[in-house]
Amino acid sequence: MQSAHTRDTNEKLANLDNTTKETVQRIDKVNNKITDLREQRMRDPDTLGDKAFKLAFPALIGMVAGKAFQSVWNLVTNKVHPSPNDDEADRKQGLLMSVLFAAASAAFSTVVTTYSDKLTQSIVGRLQRKRK
């Protein structure tokens, strides 16, 4: 017959073995996740420069296009309403013109962004082919 002390020690060792197994399983799980992430990064053909270019170029093109659109809009609206005598009529149409400007600007920005993204991807793809 086992003494109470021996039983307690055996239970503690069994619990320790279970805790150790769980800890090793958790460490293995983390290790596998790290390995998967490393493999994903190694398979990714984009370098840091490619990623920076993909981020910066469309943003820069979008800013320039937005400013160009705003300048053209201002030129057109100044030609349509050049005199300050019709300011009251302009104020009444202000909301409509603001909505029209927002819609036209959003449509223009969408088109520019779509094509600049495609251009950027094309340029990066060409650079990656040259690297290989």
Automatic annotation (TrEMBL):
Basic and acidic residues bias (residue ranges): 1-11
Segments for region (Disordered): 1-21
Keywords: Membrane, Transmembrane, Transmembrane helix
Transmembrane segment boundaries: 52-73, 93-116
Superkingdom per UniProt: Bacteria
UniProt protein name: DUF4235 domain-containing protein
Species of provenance: Bifidobacterium animalis subsp. lactis (strain AD011)
